[in-house]
């Protein structure tokens, strides 16, 4: 057996190993001897018939496959050992290719390298950290939203607005010709739900029931029907109804007459809702910033990944795709006919999705490596105040990592204005939550005192 030969490509490491003809023959003879002992020929005990008769019943192709599998497995352990010693950055995704040589075989063990990201230009990124304090208006809007969840919709004669449900007929044309799937009657759509292509729903805003007209919108370049991509479509619209949630307003008589409408109860509810909003905005603000930053960076970085690594992810996505079709009782072949696509088109889409998932994940890993800061004792103390105020007894490692990346990134990329805003926001967060907790504690104490006072009054009356 000769030495290992290592060949590097951008996405794979190939470990080649030559196995001589003598070694292959030796393994073949060993397995052949074992196999011949088990073959039965009429008139003889197992393995005792003449060699020619036994060999005639031997599946030589199957035997050769087992020889190659044994040699491959035996050498694979040594390959792993070599990779560990060399500290090669490879994954467990691999395949084995065989090449016939004049005096033996060469086993090529192809390993997928750990994906790499290059040209990560964070300093030029435009994504901004958005920090919003919770206002009284936010609290009231949130309360109204919660109160109106599940309430019925009623027809209105007003102009449509975001959140309304509209009922309409439509027929779409591309280049003057009606296109498949572009027509429906009594279609129900909640404006703002982004169910249609960009620009469509916006043109239904400000319209009253009975409106008829045309809407123009362009299919995105990523649209699932290949033939429609980047093409402008004209839709004939017949708007039949505008339905709006029969919303309960905080200043309405209906609400004020309800048990929830008392000034005392509403005041208490406002405190709890505000605390919920303060906590969720803190978590969401830094998460949204990092998510948007990663998406922006994904448009410009160079990403290198092996097809070997993508294979498993593509299979996963393909299974999800099939499961969705089964859920809607649609056969794959029928779906392809509707969207005018081939199986090859679907595989290209699946690969694109797989690459994108890996890319976003590895960009974030690069941000972790490059920008994650080690907090000082003072900073740890400050964050502990934040977590105490948030009532996080044990914040998740993901949250801690996100905070460390956020601060490290703002510092290293000289985003001084955003860094100051973030530090000010932490101070606001602690002060606001402490204030709200005091209000909650005061309300709870008041509630426990009132029953006790009632008991005293009852005794005095007796």
From TrEMBL:
It is found in: Cytoplasm. Residues 163-251 form the PPIase FKBP-type domain. It catalyses: [protein]-peptidylproline (omega=180) = [protein]-peptidylproline (omega=0). Signal peptide: none annotated. PROSITE patterns: FKBP_PPIASE (PS50059). GO terms for molecular function: peptidyl-prolyl cis-trans isomerase activity. One of its GO terms (cellular component) is cytoplasm. Coiled coil: none annotated. GO terms for biological process: cell division; protein folding; protein transport. Its EC number is 5.2.1.8. Keywords: Cell cycle, Cell division, Chaperone, Cytoplasm, Isomerase, Rotamase. Residues 442-462 are annotated as: Disordered. It is an enzyme of class 5 (isomerase). Residues 452-462 have a biased composition (Basic and acidic residues). Belongs to the FKBP-type PPIase family. Tig subfamily. Consists of 3 domains; the N-terminus binds the ribosome, the middle domain has PPIase activity, while the C-terminus has intrinsic chaperone activity on its own. Involved in protein export. Acts as a chaperone by maintaining the newly synthesized protein in an open conformation. Functions as a peptidyl-prolyl cis-trans isomerase. This is Trigger factor. It comes from Mycoplasmopsis synoviae (Mycoplasma synoviae). The gene is tig.
């Amino acid at each position: 057996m000769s030495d290992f030969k290592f060949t590097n490509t951008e996405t794979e490491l190939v470990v080649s190993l030559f196995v001589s003809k003598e070694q292959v023959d030796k393994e073949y003879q060993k397995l052949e001897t074992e196999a011949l002992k088990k073959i039965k020929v009429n008139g003889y005990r197992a393995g005792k018939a003449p060699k020619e008769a036994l060999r005639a019943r031997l599946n030589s192709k199957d035997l050769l496959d087992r020889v190659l599998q044994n040699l491959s497995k035996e050498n694979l352990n040594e390959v792993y050992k070599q990779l560990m010693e060399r500290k090669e950055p490879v994954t467990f995704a691999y395949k084995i290719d065989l090449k016939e040589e004049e005096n033996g075989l060469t086993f090529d063990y192809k390993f997928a390298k750990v994906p790499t990201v290059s040209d990560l230009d964070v300093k030029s990124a435009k994504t901004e950290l958005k920090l919003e304090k919770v206002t009284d208006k936010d609290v009231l809007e949130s309360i109204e939203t919660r109160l109106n969840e599940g309430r019925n919709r009623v027809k209105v004669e007003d102009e449509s607005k975001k959140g309304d449900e509209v009922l309409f007929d439509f027929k779409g044309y591309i280049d003057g010709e009606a296109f498949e799937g572009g027509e429906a009657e009594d279609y129900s759509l909640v404006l703002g739900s982004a169910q249609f292509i960009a620009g469509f729903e916006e043109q239904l805003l400000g319209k009253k029931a009975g409106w008829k007209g045309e809407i123009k919108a362009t299919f995105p370049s990523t649209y699932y029907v290949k033939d429609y991509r980047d093409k402008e479509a004209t839709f004939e619209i017949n708007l039949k109804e505008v339905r709006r949630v029969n919303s309960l307003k905080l200043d309405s008589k209906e609400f004020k007459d309800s048990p929830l409408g008392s000034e005392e109860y509403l005041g208490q509810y406002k405190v709890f809702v505000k605390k919920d909003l303060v906590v969720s905005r803190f978590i969401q603000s830094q998460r949204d910033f990092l998510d948007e930053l990663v998406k922006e960076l994904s448009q410009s970085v160079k990403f290198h990944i092996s097809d070997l690594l993508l294979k498993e992810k593509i299979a996963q996505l393909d299974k999800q795709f099939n499961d969705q079709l089964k859920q809607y009782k649609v056969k794959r072949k029928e779906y392809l006919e509707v969207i005018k696509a081939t199986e090859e088109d679907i595989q290209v889409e699946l690969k694109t999705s797989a690459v994108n998932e890996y890319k976003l994940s590895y960009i974030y890993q690069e941000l972790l490596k490059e920008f994650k800061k080690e907090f000082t004792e003072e900073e740890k103390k400050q964050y502990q105040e934040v977590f105490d105020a948030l009532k996080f007894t044990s914040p998740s490692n993901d949250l801690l990592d996100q905070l460390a990346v956020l601060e490290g990134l703002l510092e290293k990329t000289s985003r001084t204005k955003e860094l100051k805003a973030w530090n000010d926001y932490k101070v606001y967060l602690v002060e606001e939550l402490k204030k709200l907790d005091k209000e909650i504690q005061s309300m709870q104490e008041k509630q426990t005192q009132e029953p006790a006072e009632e008991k005293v009054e009852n005794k005095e009356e007796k």
